[in-house]
Amino acid sequence: MKRFWKEVAVDAERGIQLDGKPVRTPGRLPLILPTDALAEAIAEEWRCVEDEIDPRPMPLTGLANAAIERVAADPAVFAANLAAYAESDLLCYRADAPPELIARQATAWDPPLAWATTRYDVHFLLAPGVMHQPQPDATIERLAVAVAVRDPFELAALAPIVTITGSLVLGLALVERAMDADAVWDAANLDEDWQAEQWGEDALAAQARAVRRTEFDAAARFLHLRQTPDEADHAALA
Fold it and tell me: For a disulfide at 225, which of 16, 37, 72, 177, Cβ 3.0-4.6 Å?
């Protein structure tokens, strides 16, 4: 669709308007945002459209559409699918050699696990290699609750973060501001960085990583804009 509007505005309900007409999701639902900051950022994506609408440089709009259409339709099911990552969290699978990699994983991954242990009163079992290690039932249940209490906009952003990093713990640490986005990204890509240091970087792998980073950054920004100042302060203190 070609650009047909001249003015983009945010209305009193935090909806996006094009020349005074409300923007709707692809399923024709009102595009209403939960915070002023997120509404203004999405409005700016629409202001930056040139000749034709291209969804690729409009990731915040895409995440908002997903929250309103897909997640809000059945948030409990969406949250349960996301919480399943607790059963195979990246941070629980450790190398058994060499010593340098073992130490690097411990330095990067032990602190977020320790945070989650205290924050949610859970216990994690670590495993060498990639063979599946079941986690305690109480851990799975409590982390599932931690996901289920999130609203559709938080869940929509958590989905790409958790799937890209392979870690529910890192996703929760980001949403609760126990870690910043760069720290989460570095922790999630520790093994890949190690392999690149040992064998050199593959060009195709680097391209794929750049795409993932773009998606990750958009979701992290969406989460940040979703939080009100009071919610951000509460998350930082939790």
Answer: 37
pLDDT, tens digit, for every residue of 147-165?
999 999 999 999 999 999 9
In this prediction the pTM is: 0.93
CA distances from 173 to 55, 140, 157, 176, 236 (A): 28, 16, 13, 5, 10
What whole-number distance in Å separates Cα of residue 57 and Cα of residue 218?
10
| CA dist list (Å): 202 to 150, 182, 210, 223 | 37, 22, 12, 31
pLDDT tens, residue by residue, 71-126: 999 999 999 999 999 999 999 999 999 999 999 999 999 999 999 999 999 999 99
pLDDT of 235 above 60: no
If you write DSSP's letter for every residue of 97-117 in order, what string do you get?
A: S-HHHHHHHHHHHHHHHHHHH
| CA–CA dist 193, 210 (Å, integer) | 13
Question: Position of tokens 């929760």?
Answer: 172
DSSP classification of residue 178: S
- Return the residue matching tokens 């804009």: 225
Three-state secondary-structure class, residue 135: coil
Q: What angle do CA 213, 101, 140 make, to 5 degrees?
A: 65
